[in-house]
Amino acid sequence: MRLLFAEDEADLNHIVTKRLTEEGYSVDACFDGEEAIDCLDAADYDAVILDIMMPKADGFTVLKHLRDMKKTTPVLFLTARDAVTDRVRGLDMGANDYLVKPFAFDELKARIRAMTRTVFREADTLLEVGNLQMDVAAHVVKRGDRVIDLSAKEYALLEYLMHNAGTVLSREKIEDHIWNFDYEGGTNVVDVYISYLRKKIDAEGEDKLIHTVRGAGYVLRA
Q1: Which residues, 6 or more positions from 37, have their beta carbon under 8 angstroms from its beta carbon?
Q2: Which domain holds residue 85?
Q3: What pTM value is reported for the model?
Q4: Which of 23, 145, 157, 162 is the most buried (most CB within 10 A)?
Q5: What does pLDDT average to over the chain?
């Protein structure tokens, strides 16, 4: 999943961004509200995490901009201000959740999963395509009884394919969703990572789940 994280406290920004990236998320991190608005204008995100008290534009202003764009992207307010009036204002403006600093990183991950679960219409944290299973909460992937070891980026790519099982995804759409603005790799990065996944997911003798649609992209289907 691709996340936008806006937090002006540099140390917290770097730590959370690093840990979310290690969990397989693609994260665009910014340090003020204007930068956050620029990111929202340039890309689509699965979830947005906003500090309320930021320079140039506060979290309320960024949230209003997002909702004025008619985007329903889930938003989590992350703030040290725990007054009830702030919570109510944020929720009334269209925020989906609220987390007060300091917080446990595991709770942040759980709240991100809860928000995006609603977007993807999932009843639980288990994704299934044929005999391929992904437990999003436990971060475990299996095909039948075989546990599959994936890198963070491979995991993120597979999760995106499983969320969109049966839908053909173009290379451009996959790249925009999985890699953030800081990526400086090659132009064939999607093909490379699809190849990595195929070697791990579609083992010899098993039915192929990852299919190439010539001229269109890739699709995961049983």
Answers
A1: 57, 61, 62, 65
A2: 2-119
A3: 0.71
A4: 157
A5: 88
